[in-house]
Fold:
Amino acid sequence: MDVVYQYGQATAAEVLDALPDPPSYSTVRALLRVLEDKGHVRHRRQGPRYVFRPTVPREKARRSALARVVQTFFDGSSQAAVAALIDQSSLSGADLDRLEALIDRARQEGR
Structure:
C-alpha cells in the first residue's frame, strides 16, 4: 500500500521494483488482489497491465490502521500505544516539544 500511495497508482511490477527486499512477482500480484478484495485498492486495465490505485485517502487509511493496531496490541489504550512509541523512539527535544504542544492543545479542546 505504501508504494501505491507514494506513486498515486502503480502496477505490480512498479510495486515489486520499489520494495527493498521484494517477494516474487506472483506474490505481489496476489497481495494486490487481496487488497482489492478488501476494498483498499481498485484497478484499471492499461494495455496488458493492471494499474492499482488506493480507494481511500492515505490519512483515512492511516487512522483506520492505527486504530486497529491500538485495539489489537494495546487493548484499545491510546496511552499505552503512545508510551510504547516514546519508549522505543529516539525523540529529539524538538519532537518532545511538538508532542507537548499537541497534548496541550488536546487538553484545551477538551479531548
Q: What stands out?
A: The first helix runs from residue 2 to 7. The two ends are 31 Å apart (CA to CA).
